[in-house]
Amino acid sequence: MNSTKRELPFRRYLAFSRASFLETLTFRASLLLSLGGSLIYTAVVCFLWKSIFNSAGTEIVNGMTYPMTLAYVAIAGAVTSSMTIYLVWDIGRDIQSGTIALWFVKPLDYFTMNLFNSVSVIVFSFFINVVPVFILVEILVGWQIPFGINILWFVLSVFLGVIINFCLDFMVGTICLHTQSIWGINIMKEVVVSVLSGVTVPLAFFPDALRQVMMFLPFQAIFNTPLTLMITPNPSTELLIRSFSIQIFWIIVLVIAAKSFFKVSSRVITINGG
Amino acid sequence: MENTRIRPIRGFLFYFKIYWMIALQDIKSKMSYRSDFLISTIGMIAVNVSGFLGFWLVFQTFHEINGWKFNEILFLYACLLLTMTPNQIFFDNNWSLRYYVYSGDFVKYCFRPINLFFYFISEVIDVKGFGQFFFGLFLLIYSWIQLQIPVTVGNVVTLLVGLLSGSLVVIALMVAASATCFWLMNSGFIMVYIFKFTDYAKYPLSIFNKFFQVLFTVLIPIGFIAYYPSLYFLRPNDFEWLTLLCPVVGAIMVLIAYKIWMYGASKYSGTGS
Predict the structure, then answer these.
(1) Could you report the average pLDDT of every consecutive run of 10 residues in chain B (273 residues)?
(2) Is residue B223 part of a domain?
């Protein structure tokens, strides 16, 4: 059996990326609605932060101007809604219904399969959501957000952030193996990520001590890192190296953690009806 | 036999008794998943706490939003949490409506000699909503004391009326959103959408421009959920006449939403199996 043809390492998983991409395409109405939601969210946070900055009386607060804050918060919202793919629910349902057993007998890695499944959907809905929101933000702040190499750093860094978020989602989904509660676990994860990553309020406005702690957690690497790179006009080489190496560090740690946690947990799976 | 005669309209007491019977079964079945109940309740409170933390963090750096102080924003947020509670606890089955319609199981509700909407809604009581209720109540009492609003019978009654009308608006929005699934397959995303809008009710309407103020008053009337009712307490000298309209708006909206829901249900033709 040694004569099996060698294939590219991830080729078989690309089929999943393609399938989930096509599946997303069939739900166009919900895609458009999610874009509408992102645009309205942008308008709401625009009014909110405009009145906050107006009341403050100064232009720059904690190193952030109003255009920077708006870009940060609005794009964070758009990225969040393109990252919301209900992975925890999918894994939870696989576990509760027992379909997960079918994945064990296939020559596929459950983690990698889900990763390829999710990434194509996220990349697609990223373009649908984030590009229009970015343009709207630029119009609202009169093209004050630089449009150059910073966008490239942002896109690269968001991609790494997506993988970090995927690992967290996967781990949270695995917890459902032990607790049988999907809604509660999922909502807690969403809350923790949205507060600690800077989506609700940019990390720059956190009290100093709290921000220091946040920098040691993986959550800020999902949103705060790419968004900071986006609103910084001329990032220093040091900032770039630090940002990307922290993200890569978390990816390595979390991939190993997620995979081993799943491996340990899959031994305790009990499926109704045997 | 005299008492098996089907009467089209029944008394309040009759429905109350039935409600209790049906809801009790649901609570019993929920209680058999105790860890799920516990985790969901914690999750619910976590969501509310994060909303609170959002404002708290903003007010660490800034001192007011468009003339609104921290405790006033807190009061508004507490009102929102409390008005969301009745919908969360008693109308949670609406989230499952689309599955029942899609799979055809909805037909089981059509063969009972009681009000269709009532029977469907009474089937689920969402206990985790009580977590939200107590957190909202805690915030309300805290901000009430901080703002030094006098505790008079008039104020308490007005607050209750305000919260009740706000709840009716939330219920109406969500009932109407869920009813869309009678026409559109799998319209869950519309419910998620409207639900997200209700979250914007935690901001004072005065921060928006005229266009959005009209939008949030007329088209998607989230202003009536918490903003207009709480103006009575936060801006006692110049609250708007819309504040006085709250109960009327709530009642009319619920009536319309109920009609839409029932109309959709009457169009329901099953799945043919």
Answers:
(1) 51 86 86 84 92 93 91 96 95 91 86 88 89 95 94 94 96 95 81 90 93 92 94 84 90 96 87 61
(2) yes
| Token code pair at residue A163 | 């993988």
Structural domains of chain B, count:
1
Among B40, B60, B212, whose Cβ lies nearest the Cβ of A181? B40
Interface pTM, i.e. ipTM: 0.86
What's the token pair of residue A248? 């890569």
Q: Quick check: helix, strand or coil at residue A61?
A: strand
> What range does the domain containing B118 cover?
12-267
Query: Cα dist. B172→A180, A221, B128, B180 in Å?
Result: 32, 40, 21, 13
Q: How far apart are the first and last CA of chain A?
A: 32
**Nearest neighbour of A48 by CB, restricted to B42, B63, B207:** B207
A188–B61: do the CB atoms touch at under 8 Å? no
Tell me if B272 is assigned to some domain: no
Decide if B207 and A200 are in contact by the 8 Å CB cutoff: no
Domain assignment present for B4: no
List Cβ neighbours of B1 (8 Å cut-off, separation of 6 or more): none
Does residue B2 sit within a domain? Answer: no
| Helical H segments across chain A, by residue range | 11-25, 28-56, 66-83, 87-97, 100-104, 110-140, 149-179, 182-196, 208-214, 224-231, 237-266
Which of B50, B77, B135, B185 has the highest number of chain A CBs within 10 A, making it the mutation to test binding with A? Answer: B50
Q: CA B30, CA B161: separation in Å to the nearest integer?
A: 31
- Look at B203 and A200 and tell me if their CB atoms are within 8 Å: no
Higher-confidence residue of A6 and B3: namely A6
Is residue A118 within 8 Å of residue A85, measured between CB atoms? Answer: yes
